[in-house]
Every structure is written in structure tokens, then in C-alpha cells.
Amino acid sequence: MRPDVTCLVLFVNHHRFSLEDAQQVGGSFEFDKPKLGLEAQRHGVRVSLRREQGSIPIVLEIRADAPPAEFAGFQLVSEGSFEAVSGELELSSPGEHQPAGDRSGKLRVPAGWLRVQVRQADLDTTSKDAFRGAEHYRVILWPAPQGKTVLLHSEKLGTRLLKPRSSFAEVERALADVDQTARCLAVNEALRHLGAGEKRGLLLLGRATRDPAPAVRAVTVSALALAHQQWRPAVCALLDSLAGDGVEEVQARLQDAYDLLKCEALVDAAALLPLFASRKAETKYAGLVALSTLAESNGQETVSPAADALRSLSRDKDPDVSSLAASILKWEGAPAKTSFRPSPASGPSAQLLWTHAAQRPNQLLSLRGEVLVRELDNLVFLDAVSGRRVRTCFDLPSKHPTGALVGDTLLLANSAFEDGETRWSAIGFDVARGAPRWHFDLGSRGDFGEPVALGEAGVFRSAECIVAVEAASGKKLWELAAPQGETFEEAAACGELLCVRHEAPEVLTGWSRAGQPLWRVDAPGAWNLAA
Amino acid sequence: MAEAQTIVSGEGLVAAFFADGRIEAFELETGRARWKRTIEPVTQSMTPLLVASHLWLVDGARQLCALDAKTGEPLSFEAPRLRTGECVVFSAAGRVFLATRESLGQDRLFCLQPPAR
After folding, report:
1. Touching check for A354 and chain B: CB below 8 Å?
2. What is the CA radius of gyration of chain B?
3. Which residue of A has its CA nearest to B47?
């Protein structure tokens, strides 16, 4: 049996992704401090990463037997077993789902016990904030009896910059290799040249976007788009290569495109029309999904050129295709940029003032007539009246998606994985200057949650402790340790008061701004504090 | 009474959200029932927002909707729709903002002006 190789890019969260039997998704993996490697359970495996969040290239390989033990280029290789009862697997990360296989997003494998080998590479290129790096994976599956989880290969991890490991000529040769997997890996090497500031990397990647293998093109487009935010060349390469490909290949790359690039200008209806003429329902469906994304953003401007094709598809014998085509046709007369219900003729009404094309907005804050949008690790300032972008603070010094605003200081908690442990720090970020104002070392006393603004102070909470710091200066004001046997699970500010939810036992406590205890009440079943 | 999954209070109102989609509103001072409706929120992770005399939430059709805090009557308006992902509702400067995090398609931030009181 020839190995079946799929290359994809998964958006990961919380240092991990899972590969599980599609009918048993949601295994009760232990959540602990991030450790690299593999954890196997009965119906799936969880892989722990060095990157906390971001796009990770993964090569998935399904084989008939065990792969050769050749680990050159990989820093950590581990192996485990799980049972794929349904013969379908789902690849996911918390909050994300990667359609790795067919339209349903399932990856087909032989049903029964599988051995899985996870090869992790370039772990030491991960940045200190764990948001960037060239970490990538090869996941190999083959039918085999149940066995123990073992570590097959490990290299001591240091920290190195994203430097080219192979010379330009070597990467050039690798990109011409007969084996498409070797070419996929060469794409990562080409990215290193780009990451190291060598524009010749783009030349190599340009070649890879024209590779005869769809998998290589897909991984190139994806990697370009997200690893280095070079989505414009990726879009151009994608569009350029649409014409000469078979419809299945176009479908695969469209999937990458709208999953990963999230770019309104990616394709237009005209580019999609050849797909609608396909005899394959899968292909037509892929094109329609792409079109529906565009239609919602651009309204009739997008739909009108494809209206005739859509009317024809709305009578397609495949019910998925016909219903999706019919639903897109409804946008034909819609105004651009919005997808709204009609306003009532009379009565109270809310009015849409503006919209902003955001990139994974996690939190909204406001300051002096501006709306601050936390988008990935950037903070975008929009004028609240017009929606106009005023400025952007790039690369906030925290990978955690939310913070608390006290005056001009955005309070952030940040962690760094160093020497086998996670260390936390509190950061006061001056939003006016766009630079950190102070750092405060919180140590390694559990994972810290979203900071809380309490008067002029910022409160940082983990299960083990609560630390209050002056927002303006970063000076520690007071600190509480969780009573023995108890944990601090949540904290919320209510005016002058800090309310804390404990577990074991389940109680609520109230604290003054100075950290003095005020009250303690039993609160069985309490789970969500809202100020 | 079944256990409420989320409770929101403000503007003299306490609104309780139940697992079966019921929303029940009570007067904050007296606890007297004010109104009840069944609108299943799209996600349990999104906390509804009580602002400008309206309770804002994303409904089962994945559209932002607003219920009058006094009567529970829905406000009809040009409602932004969430396609496939999660969202955050936020209020500042008398406006309501809906930020969507789509798993398929473009993320957006919508700014709405609620009706005058």
C-alpha cells in the first residue's frame, strides 16, 4: 500500500491538538502544564506543542506498516496507540476544527487499533511568547495492535533563531525531490530563508506554489499566509494556479484558502464558475461555500455575476448543493458589506453605524472615544463614531487573549515556557505610547487568568494566589495565598470590592481594595462570577 | 425551578437564562416576575449584555437580537449575523458592538446605535 499523505495547516490553541475517533471526540485528557509529547487514550491522542497558538504545518501519513526509524531533522518523536472504532478521525485543537479529509472534515483510516507516531520538528524556533516559530509536525498512522506510549527520540531543546538550516542550493534541490513529502518539508526550509530576511526565500516559495502536487502547493500557500502574514503573494499564487488544475485540487486549495486566509479578495464569482460546471457534487459544494463567504461580505456585487450558475445549481440533484445555491441566491439583491434583516417600517429601531473587518477579535475595550479591539496579539484602535482605524499596537507582550484596562494601562498576564516550567509575569502596557510600562514577576504558581481592574490596581489570580499591583507603576500592593486545600477559581471586581470564588470547599469571599478580608459565605454550585 | 445557567443584572432587572432556552426577567428590587420568553442563545459561552434598556444576545438563528428590558419584546433591526463561530458583545459610549470570530469566513466588528430611550 502506498502511504496516503495529507499536508495541512492547523490553527492551534492552548499548546495542543488532538486526533480522535470521530465518534468519540472530546476525550478527557488531563489539562496540566504544557509538556511536549504525546498522550494516548483509548480513542485518540493529544499532542502537546511548544507553540501556544498559531498555525502549525502538519503532514499526516497513513501507512500499511510501521515507518522506518529515520528521525533526522526531528527533535522529538513519540509513539502511542488508540482505537479508531469508526474508521474516521477528527483533527482538532481547542476551539478549532480542521477539515482534514472529506466534506465532513473526517479523515478515513482502517478501523481498529492504530499506532500513531508523532514527529515534532523545529521546536526550538518558537518565540518566547510562544506565538511564532517554525514548529511543524509529521503524524504517521498505521494499523497495529495496542502498545505502550513510548518516546523514540529526543534532542535537548535550546532556543535558536529562525535561521536557514540548509543552504539555498540544498533547499532548491529538495524542492525538486521526487517525494512530495520531502518537497513539503523543503517548503519549511524555504520559509526559514524568508524568516531570516532573505528575499531568495520568496523565490523558492514562488516555485513551490507551482508544484505539480496539490499537497505541496497547499502547504506552501498556507504556510506563506499564516506563518509570515504574506497572504497577498499567497492569494496571487493561488489564483494563478486555479486555471490549470483539476477540480479536486482546486477544491483542496479553496478549503485552505477560506479556512486560513480569511481573505475577502481571495476569489471572485467568476473564478469559481468553472467549479460549478463540474460533474462532482463535492467540487460544486466547495465552490459554493467559498462563494457564500464572499456573498455575505460583498452582497450583490459578488453574487450577480454567478446568478445564472446559481439558479442552475439550485436545481441540482444533490440536496446539499441545491440548498446552498438557493440560500446564496437570496443575497443577490442584498446591499454590500452586510447581511441584515430588513428594518421595520416603524417602532424603535437600532441602527448599524459601521463594520470593521477584524482578525480573530478576542476582546473589546474602550478609551476616550475609541474602541480598542484585541486581534490576535495586536491592539487595534478604532474611532467609535466612524469605525475608522486610528492606529495599531502590534505584538502585545502577551499571548493571552484578554486583559484589563485601568486608565491608559492595559494589564496583561503572560507566560513563558522555560527550562521545563511555565513562568508568569504581570505586564502594564501603556496603550498611549504602545509600549510596556512595567513587568512584574508572578513566578510559577499556577496558570493566571484574565487580570481584573480593581480601582487603580490590577489583580492577577491563579489557583494558588492573588497578587494586586498598582496599575500605573507595577508596584506590588498586596498578595494572598489560597488557604491550604483550597483554590482560587475566579475573581471579579464589584466597585470597591473584590469577590473571589474558591473551590474545595465552594465558597465566595469578599476582599477590600487593600486586600483585607470582609466576608466569606458558602456558595455550593456557584460557577460564574459576573460583576 | 430549574437552575439558571447564566444570570445578568442591571437597569433594575435580573434576567435568568435556562438550558431549555427560556429567559425570565425579574425586578431587581422586588423579585417580581416581569416577563419571560424562549429564545435559545446560540452559545453558552457568550454572556448576554444588558445595556440601553435592552438585553442583547445572539439567538438560535445566529443573529444578534435585543429584547426590551421592560417588556421582553424583541427589537427589530438590521441584525448582524454570525456564520459559524463565536462572538463577543460589548457596550461603550452608548453603542453596542458585536465582534465575531468566525471559523469559516471573515471576522467582523459591528457597531450599532441602540434606539433612544
Report:
1. yes
2. 14
3. A530
Looking at beta carbons, which residues of chain A come within 8 Å of B90? 364, 366
Is B1 a member of any domain?
A: no
Q: Do residues A71 and A152 touch, judged by C-beta distance below 8 A?
A: yes
CB A259 within 8 A of CB A229: no
User: Which of B80, B96, B106 lies nearest to residue A340, judging by beta carbons?
Assistant: B80
Q: Look at residues A430, A428, A429, A399 and name the one whose alpha carbon lies nearest to residue A416.
A: A399
* Alpha-carbon span A320 to A514, nearest angstrom: 61
- What is the Cα–Cα distance from A162 to A138, expressed in whole angstroms? 19
Indicate the pTM of the whole model: 0.49
What total of structural domains would you count in chain B? Answer: 1
Q: Which residues contact A464 (CB under 8 A, 6 or more apart)?
A: A445, A446, A481, A482, A487, A488
Q: Residue A274 and residue A305: Cα distance in Å, rounded?
A: 13
Closest CA to A58 of A124, A177, A140, A139: A139
- Check which CATH number belongs to the domain holding B12 and give it: 2.40.10.480
Cα separation, A408 vs A426, in Å, equals 16
The pLDDT score that the predictor gives to residue A224 is 62
3-state secondary structure of A386: coil
* Residue partners of A405: CB distance under 8 A and separation at least 6: A365, A367, A372, A411, A431, A453
Residue of B nearest to A383 (CA): B111
Mutate to test the interface with A, among B71, B97, B98, B113 (most CBs of A within 10 A): B97
Whether B66 maps to a domain, the answer reads yes
How far apart, in whole angstroms, are the C-alpha atoms of residue B56 and residue B64? Answer: 7
User: Which residues constitute the domain of residue B75?
Assistant: 6-112
- Establish if B117 belongs to a structural domain: no
pLDDT of residue A34: 44
Domains of chain A: 4-238 (2.60.34.30), 267-339 (1.25.10), 396-483 (2.40.10.480)
Q: Phi, psi at residue A275, to the nearest 5°? A: -65, -35
Cis peptide before A305 (omega within 30 of 0): no
Q: How far is CA A240 from CA A175, A235, A291, in A?
A: 20, 8, 18
Which residues sit opposite B10 in a β-bridge?
A: B13
Cα–Cα distance between A112 and A492 in angstroms, integer? 48
Taking the C-alpha atoms of residue A60 and residue A135, their distance in angstroms, rounded to an integer, is 15
Q: Does A264 reach chain B within 8 Å, measured CB to CB?
A: yes
- Which amino acid, A280? K
Mean pLDDT, chain A, integer: 75
Mean pLDDT by 10 residues, chain A (531 residues): 69 80 66 62 86 77 90 86 90 59 63 93 72 80 91 64 66 83 76 65 73 72 53 48 50 49 45 70 70 58 73 86 80 44 50 78 84 85 82 80 89 83 89 88 88 92 93 93 89 84 84 89 67 50
One digit per residue, the tens of pLDDT, for chain B of length 117 reads 456 667 777 777 888 877 777 888 888 778 788 898 887 655 544 677 888 788 888 876 677 888 888 888 888 777 776 666 677 888 887 788 888 876 555 677 888 888 775
Cell of A209: 506554489
Identify whether B90 is part of a domain. Answer: yes
CB A160 within 8 A of CB A124: yes
State whether A352 and B93 contact (CB < 8 Å): no
Cα–Cα distances in angstroms (integers) from residue A93 to residues A14, A54, A96, A224, A245, in the given order: 8, 11, 5, 21, 31
The predicted structure's pLDDT at residue B110: 86
